[in-house]
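so my prof wants the structure for this chain in the tokens format not the other one, which i didnt know existed until like an hour ago. anyway here's the sequence
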Amino acid sequence: MAIPPKKIVLLPGDGIGPEIVRVAARVLMDCSAEFGHPFDLAEFPFGGCAIDSAGMPLPAETLAACKAADAILLGAVGGARWDPLPIGKRPESGLLALRQELGLYINLRPIELRPALRGLSPLTADRASGVHMDIIRELAGDIYFGEHHIAADASGERATDEAVYTTGEVERVARYAFARAEARSGRLASIDKANVLSTSQLWRRTVTRLAADHPKVKLEHLYVDNAAMQLVLAPAQFDVILTSNMFGDILSDLGAALVGSIGLIPSMSCGPGPSLYEPIHGSAPSLAGKDVASPVGTILSASMMLRESFGLKQEAEWIETAVDRLFAQGVRTADIAAPGTTPIRCSEFGERLHAEMMETVERHAQDA
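here's what i got, hopefully its the right format
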């Protein structure tokens, strides 16, 4: 009986998105060919390009395809050309709407300093050792989804942004974080600002209560300002970090800086339906069409998809070890190129990665 293909929706988006998704899609098809997994890849408009073609960032056809998919791979959205639009009409609003429609309330960002790139970290060698953590960010609540108002004021204008959390919203992401910690080292750091924010007080009370159900996990609470400092001073102390939407947005970018480039970090957004995978960098419109962007974050997002959505651990490791071998050989794009070396282009990185992966297959065949 034939295995039904996994439906993977590709959302290249804007700026460098099409270039980097093209490379990652080839990696997925390499896995399909070499391991016999039937993948059905279909591309749909999303973000600014969808505004241009359909008048909205999340067209109904795109949303329907995403809901019917087994997983989704996104490039990037946004750009200066759409900035004059109202907040709710910009490309980024399509991403928020997609998260809401799919019920994506958890964002997972693995922060790992790859061995060959230790020299790129701004950390000293002793502090850079052992940077390998998961940052789990609540994705469906907080100030991004609250009410936003700008009103007249005697001084000019008065702006208000509302941050809201419910007990249930905190519970569901905290349970995921505790389970993740149990599967790793049993250490969980919950980040908040409970000394001044009511939402953080609810957050801390709820996480503390749930800790009783996970006795094998050592829970630690940190204020977000202290957590930011500790990430720089002693990042190896962290294994799994749990935090709110806004704090997670900020801390995960700080984590990316620790490992050398924001272009290296993949992410997964998940909930009850299909998960969404994407690099955490932006659309970089100034680089669009120049074939100079790094596809690594998107490639690692694809391998993360294989592991997390499809349970294909061996295939994910095949990709990731090939990426590490290229780094060790000095194969780098411009964002991570060593001084005095010539960076390669985005498409060339894809070609080199394909060759490296195929060489591994040939070696295994010869050994067998």
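also thought this was worth mentioning. The chain has a mean pLDDT of 93.
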